[in-house]
Write a sequence for this structure.
């Protein structure tokens, strides 16, 4: 999995969480702090503080590009502190690679199982699961529902499920999609 796509989708997930819990709103493509407080993890609190500290309303895409370099390390640290992953470093020729194997495989598979349940289940999926599925798609995890659904059928489901999404969530997911496309096909603003 490409690190830039992981960074972009992680910050997109955090922004979606802040949006769905009412701690930010999105107006004309720019996030704004609402003043609502809720339970939050350290990473979400850091992102919320960054947005609150900025007096100028910047577009979502700018926030994604600004926050993405630090988000993976913050999330990994939080997961390691909670005992969910074990950071391990592997050394190869002139290079050090970091891996984060899960401590409990069942817990690690929870997100994938939730997406599969939303896609393949009889109930109408909620905005959280549709967003999670779209973020997974942008990350390149298009085999989530195989063998029941192939890539084309999953994309068709995502298109149908995303239609009733709130406009603010659609703006966040569109910014994530644009950032991933720019990082994959060139045109990064760095």
């Amino acid at each position: 999995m490409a690190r830039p796509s992981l960074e972009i989708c992680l910050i997109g997930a955090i922004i979606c969480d802040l949006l769905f819990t009412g701690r930010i709103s999105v107006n004309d493509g720019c996030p704004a702090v609402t003043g609502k407080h809720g339970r939050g993890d350290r990473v979400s609190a850091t992102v919320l503080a960054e947005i609150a500290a900025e007096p100028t309303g910047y577009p979502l895409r700018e926030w994604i590009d600004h926050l993405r370099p630090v988000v993976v390390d913050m999330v990994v640290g939080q997961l390691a502190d909670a005992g969910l992953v074990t950071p391990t470093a592997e050394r190869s020729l002139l290079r050090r690679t970091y891996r984060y194997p899960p401590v409990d495989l069942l817990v690690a598979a929870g997100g994938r199982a939730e997406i599969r349940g939303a896609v393949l289940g009889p109930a109408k999926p909620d905005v959280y699961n549709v967003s999670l599925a779209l973020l997974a798609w942008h990350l390149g995890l298009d085999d989530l529902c195989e063998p029941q659904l192939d890539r084309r059928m999953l994309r068709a489901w995502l298109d149908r499920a995303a239609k009733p999404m709130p406009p603010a969530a659609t703006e966040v997911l569109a910014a994530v999609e644009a950032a991933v496309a720019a990082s994959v096909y060139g045109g990064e603003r760095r």
